[in-house]
Amino acid sequence: MAARGRRTVLIVASPSWRFGWGVYAINMALHWHGDPNLALLSVLPFDPPELLDLPGLDTAWRERLAPFATASLAFQKRLTGVAGPVLNVSCPVLHPLYDQMRVAPLPSGNVVFGTPTIGMVFSTDTAIDAAARERATRFPLIVAGCRWNQQVLEDAGIGPVALVLQGIEPALFHPGPRSGRYGGRFAIFSGGKLEYRKGQDLVLRAFGDFHRRHPDALLITAWHSPWPGLSQSMAGDDSPPPPLLRGGGIDEPAWVRSFGMPEDSVIDLGTVPQPKMPAVLREMDVSLFPNRCEPGTNLVAMEAMACGLPTILSANTGHLDLMTPDNSYALTRQKPVEPKRAGMGGSDGWGESDCEEILAQLEAVYTDRPEAARRGAQAAATLAQLPWQRQVQALKATILPYLD
After folding, report:
1. Which is deepest, 113, 117, 247, 389, by most CB within 10 Å?
2. Has residue 1 got a pLDDT over 70?
């Protein structure tokens, strides 16, 4: 236990500006900085310059993150060489839970458990087996990132399960002026790591039809992630997976060409750190997320909506926690997804969006810009109620009773 009654809390996630769990860890560190009860440390490796030396990073954020980074690296060094498959520590641990209630090991192969260990779940497989239910008993509390995930676990007899949604940073993600970077073309944004669950194949199919109707349309993609291998889940009977580059990464332009897209109709942004995304999003006319499953609330969609961007969302799983009748364009024609195609034991609640409905919603935005702007403004108002500071404090209030 730290001084002044503060408890050291370990998070088994690497802080990073480039993926969801990394952003979650960063916001815990930012908003628990100086907290009277909790002092966060990360036990997974990260690159301090990538975290702290990002150009344009707010000075106050850097000052909060620097001591967190220093203390985390020092703690990780103390763990080096500790033997045994399970490392039991005397402080609380927040452990991400993946499909079938599995936890990720440290680089050494150890699995760390604390006093207590609280699970934080963003899982996609709905076929919870007996072994998973047994693994779940190790956690006195599991925190779910969306109501769908919470319901899946409770239906499997797992609990208690609390709900805490993710957040957005309002200092970054808010409506703002456009620079006109794309010269008046109708810019459609699609983001999220490239994988079957995210539905980028549906984006390309619908966009191809839309572009033939509207040659001024432009698709802007932010699909890269640290896990290019996930893109191979796109392989299907009617389409090849994205080619992988020999040196690592995805040959996205080659994959886009396989859908018959003109070369000047799609722009690949590459890897964009999260604090750089607002400037990208404010140049867009619409964002499109026909995702087949979201075990959280989809951070990229949340950030697009927070910028006031008219947003098309598949009405399934975690997206439902973001949607109201007037803050988005809903894809309501959701067909079941076969578990085998999803790569899951169970895919209850997953949804296959209809390309004709995607096309119709793109047309709705294109033809009625005032209505699109109105829905975008309502989206920004909705997401303004979910700032990271509030959501991280909600997480603290949820876990604190279990730390005594």
Report:
1. 117
2. no
Specify which residues 353 forms β-bridges with: 334
Given strand 186-191, what is the order of strands in its sheet? Answer: 266-268, 217-222, 186-191, 286-289, 311-314, 329-331
Q: Are 225 and 187 in contact (CB under 8 A)?
A: no
Same fold: 3-167+388-402 with 186-383: yes
Q: Where are the domains of the chain?
A: 3-167+388-402, 186-383
Contact 142, 245 (CB under 8 A): no
Pairing of strands 334-335, 352-353: antiparallel
- Mean pLDDT of the region 22-33: 98
Residues 334-348, mean pLDDT to the nearest whole number: 97
- Report which residue type is found at 176: G
Q: State the Cα angle at 231 between 320 and 263, rounded to 5°.
A: 100
Query: DSSP of 19-87, one letter per residue?
Result: SHHHHHHHHHHHHTTT-SSEEEEE-S---HHHHH--TT--HHHHHHHHHHHHHHHHHHHHHTT--SSEE
- 311 SS3 class: strand
373: its two tokens: 């702007």
User: Residue 326 — φ and ψ, nearest 5°?
Assistant: -125, 15
What average pLDDT does the segment 199-210 reach?
96
- Nearest of 98, 125, 148 to residue 345 by alpha carbon: 125
Query: For a pLDDT cut of 90, what percent of the chain falls above it?
Result: 91
Element (H, E) at 339: helix 339-342
Structure tokens at 392: 């991280």
- DSSP states along 171-224: TTSS------TTTT-EEEEEES-SSGGGTHHHHHHHHHHHHHH-TTEEEEEE--
Distances (CA, A) of 267 to 13, 188, 197, 261: 31, 10, 22, 11
CATH topology of domain 3-167+388-402: Rossmann fold (3.40.50)
> Quick one: average pLDDT of 62-91?
92
Residue 221's DSSP bridge partners are 190, 268
Query: What is the token pair recorded at 96?
Result: 């991400």
Identity of the residue numbered 52: L
Candidate CATH numbers 3.40.50.150, 1.20.140.150, 3.40.50.2000, 3.30.70.3040; the one for domain 186-383: 3.40.50.2000
Report the amino acid identity of residue 186.
F
